[in-house]
Amino acid sequence: MASCQYRTIMSVSESKNPGKIRFENQEDHALFADNDLASFEALWDLPHIFVDDVNYRRGGWSAVSTLELGAGEQRHIYFVKRQENQFRYSLRRPFGRLTFADEVDAIRLVQSLGLPAVDMVCFGISRQPGVTRGILVTRRITLPTLADLIESKPNWNAILPELEQIGNQLYRIHANKIRHGAFYPNHIFADIASGKVQMIDFEGARLCRTSAKAIKADLPQLLRRLTYMPEQAINALLRSYLDEHYELVQSLMSYRKKP
Hints:
- The protein is an alpha+beta fold.
- A six-stranded antiparallel beta sheet has the order 2-8-9-5-4-3, sandwiched between helices.
- Helix 5 crosses helix 7.
């Protein structure tokens, strides 16, 4: 049995209202409705102007586009992920389940625990003969990423306490036995001034048997990409990890590539 298996909070693919869009709050629903975008069909039919190349895999495709609503101070920017026939199969779901559904469930789990996550606006799923489609809309994160911070070459010694605070929030994900699955600097958004942290890309998130297994799965992904972060900054970022899992984290430090 795999060491990390995802525990479902709610089953998106078994929703009682397939083809409907579920909004997380009334304010966003009202804004989308005012722009005639509160239905699955309207969101699906948005122009196919994608921010990255279309991801063709698992027998289907997925892609992300941006959506801007409102104006001036009331301007809101969203990311709209559309997915078609990209299934993940398991013993529990031999006929497959959209990977989008796993991502929605993971975000809801993380949010329910008060952990860093993207703001989910709405989601929905539609089934037709031979075609299963999913939509996930999230709010654009305005914070800089950890990759942005590294590229800016800050005075690292001046922000060690703030790095420790950020790292403590990241550690809480693993303390809850959650493996993120894409634990990269450009998926970690953090504001040094406020200490706020958010994360994206939860499609590969899983619930592990232990915190150590979650850490062992995720930290190498991060350490490989901290090439230009000095040792004292890395130690500050990983302070909570070192305090609770010193030997394990030390054993993973070899994944860091020095410049």
